[in-house]
Each structure stands twice: as structure tokens, then as C-alpha cells.
Amino acid sequence: MLNDSPAIGTADSDLIKDTTTKDFRQDVITVSMQQPVLVDFWAPWCGPCKQLTPVLEKAVREAGGKVRLVKMNIDEHPQIAGQLGVQSIPAVFAFQKGQPVDGFMGALPESQIKGFIERLVGPLGPSAADALMAEADSLADQGDAAGAAELYAALLTQDPQHVGALAALAKLHTELGDLEGAKRFLTMVPPAKQNDPAVAGARAAIELAEQAGSLGDLSELQQRITADPLDHQARFDLAIGLNAHGKRNEAIDHLLEIVRRDRNWNDDGARKQLVQFFEAWGPTDDMTLAGRRKLSSTLFS
């Protein structure tokens, strides 16, 4: 299989570090004379802190060295937080030229954290991680699974919870028939990101592969349909098998045929299966877009 097992990433000590009351002046005040420093006040018992910190670390890494992050456990070092008037956590303060200049409280989403950093250092543009992800996706689209896997794994060494890379590796392994390997990558997705569209798509692809694996010879299904065009179960199973063999357009047409003949069959099962196809293929995939148009035309004609 692919040599894509990610190494466990560690925080770059030049960008991200923990500090103490004794080291705060050096780690924050002195360094902020040269570039902005974010100070993350947190505590081990704080649930929102656990949500914010990895997102904050990712944003700092993706800023490409324009900003640093210093983390302070207020249970062990409460003095600085008290001096700054911190009353709830997580609390993040931005220091420039030795002074706090901006800040926020609570677990903000990634987009808002990026905006917060851009207020300090100006527009960031696409991150290095985004560029690497795009290059990996391009290789995957070209059929270079090994090359794509190497780049996805490189992303995971920088950010072990990079949802896009984990989902993409899960899909690559699914396409290669390694369903256990695919599932292994999905177990690495943080709980808060389990409903991410990329993760949902990878999960749908695994489910479809498992369904297809139990079908056996597709020619038998085709013979059943020829003998009885109203054998919707055979047509349904054939669609799943055709999708597994890359014949997506034929798979769509068979499911649409069921929808045309009996929309209510199997509790609207054909339409639901199409939706799962679209989820597995991705929202911008050409066949997804074409399939959605065909489905809309069928439903509303």
C-alpha cells in the first residue's frame, strides 16, 4: 500500500512554545519588539481551550513566520493573566512592540482567527499548506496516487489533524481497495470535524466500496434486469457496482431509471443513493454536477 503513514507532528519551537511567568518577558515582550506574538491563556480543564488551541496553532503555522504563538497555562502561572484582567478563557492577546494591542475571548472559528492575524500583519493569501494541498489534489486527479499520498503525508507532519489531508488519504486507500487503511485515517479526524464535508465524502466512499464488495458478478445483475426491467433491487445493486468500477454515468442512469419508474421504491432509496454518490464524489466533481442536473430534471419534469 501507499507509504503515507504520517509522522507525529510537533510544534515548531520557533513559532509555537509554552511559557512561564519567569520567561514571559523574554518569550513575549522581547520577541514582540520584532514581530507580533499571540499569547493563548488556557487551562487543562477548559473545553473551549482544547478546541481553540489546535486551530490557533494551525493558523500561526500557516502565517509563514509572520506571527508567533506563546501558550500560558493559567493554573500554573496565573499572575500575567491576572495583570491583564483575564476573567474567562480561552483568552488570546496580541502583543506588538511590547504592548497588548488586540485580543479576543472564546473559541473562534478558523476564518476569524485568520482575520485576527491579518489585522496584525496584513493579508496572508493562500497558505503554504493550501498550496501543498492543491498540488496533492492535482496529482490525485491525474492518477498519481503515490505522489499525492506523499504530499498529503507531508501536510500531516505539519498538522496531524489536517482534515483535508486525512480525508484525501482515506479516499485514496478506498480507491486502492484498502478499506481498513482508509478507516484508519478517518479515526484520526478530530471529533469536532467528523461532519466536515471532506470527511463525510470519504466516509460515503468507504460505505459504497463495502456495498460493492458484496455484490459479486455484475453480469448476473444485468441479466436479471434484462429479464425483468422492474427488478429495482437488481438495478440498484448494479448501479453501486458500476460506480465501484468507475462507470459513474451508467450508475447515475440506472438509479434515475428507478426514480422515474417508482419514486417511492425502498423508501426513496434510489434518490438517496444518488445523494450518497454525490457526497462521495465531492460537491464540485463534474459527475456530481451533471448528476444533480439530471436528478432535478427527473424530479421536476
UniProtKB/TrEMBL annotation:
Species per Swiss-Prot/TrEMBL record: Microvirga brassicacearum
An annotated Gene Ontology molecular function: protein-disulfide reductase activity
Stored Pfam families: Thioredoxin, TPR_19, TPR_20
GO BP: any one term: response to stress
Name of this protein: Thioredoxin
Gene3D superfamilies xrefs: Glutaredoxin, Tetratricopeptide repeat domain
Similarity remark: Belongs to the thioredoxin family.
UniProt keyword Disulfide bond, yes or no: yes
Keywords noted in UniProt: Disulfide bond, Electron transport, Redox-active center, Transport
GO cellular component, one term: cytosol
Tree of life domain: Bacteria
Gene from which the chain derives: trxA
Start and end residues of each Thioredoxin domain: 6-122
